[in-house]
Amino acid sequence: MGKLTPPIITDIYQYLFIPKYGWDGDYKTFEEAKSHSGGYDHAEILERVKKAALKVKSGAAVYERDSVIFDDIHYSWPLLAGLMWIAANNKGRLNVLDFGGSLGSSYFQNKKFLEGIDVKWSVVEQEHFVKIGREFITNERLRFYESIEMCIKNSLPDVIIFSSVLQYLDKPYEFIETVLSYKFEYILIDRTQFTLNKERITVQKVPPSIYEASYPCWIFNENKFFGVFKKDYELIEKFDAGDSGIGDFAFKGAILKRRS
């Protein structure tokens, strides 16, 4: 499948007052930004994510995101509302494809509210994440796949989730066009950077207190981005996804339903 993108941390706004961390630059191409950044392939990052995810699975920790353990679950209530609405429309069934979903962070985050629902949750991730997921994390509801195609063959999901992932793809608009061809009934987008100004490509630098890493990152023009979906999908709702008002961009999400 090639390299998937990270379930990146968007809580870094608190570090933006330290110039060396946060989002920086206005690069002409994604490749140029990549040459000024690191990546998400480091074994150390995977090991930290694995340890944190296993603590959550075993009940030793409440919530994990991007290898960071939290004392309380930080819910994305609009995303959860979208999942509950979809389940209600499907008579209590929910079949999810969580693209770039790490080791099931969103599944475990929302697990309490999924208990009374017939859930299949499939994570599509990088190969080394999938290997760890299958060995240590998989359960009767949660599965891991290397590609959307492999997931569809086994699970036939009706909703695909993009939570803090599309902005880390080198060619996001080409990828979205491919996703549209699969005709998922619902699309949920969360924790994605948007601006009403010029779209730009930056480098996001993660504070070393989390882990040493930096990534090329899009800040999408909001109107251009959602215009891609307009022909095939109805925009049910758009929502703030935390960390709003960072510089000239804000994090947002959306619930989309395929047009009849």
Secondary structure elements and pairings:
Blueprint: E1 22-27, H1 30-35, H2 43-58, E2 63-65, E3 68-70, H3 77-89, E4 93-99, H4 105-114, E5 118-124, H5 127-137, E6 142-145, H6 148-155, E7 159-163, H7 172-182, E8 186-195, E9 200-206, E10 213-221, H8 222-227, E11 233-240, E12 250-258
Parallel strand pairs: 4-5, 4-7, 5-6, 7-8, 8-10
Antiparallel strand pairs: 1-9, 2-3, 8-12, 9-10, 11-12
Helix pairs in contact: 2-5
Quick summary of this structure?
By secondary structure, this protein is α/β, with parallel strands linked by helices. The chain has helices at residues 30-35, 43-58, 77-89, 105-114, 127-137, 148-155, 172-182, 222-227; strands at 22-27, 63-65, 68-70, 93-99, 118-124, 142-145, 159-163, 186-195, 200-206, 213-221, 233-240, 250-258. A hairpin with a 2-residue loop joins strand 2 and strand 3.
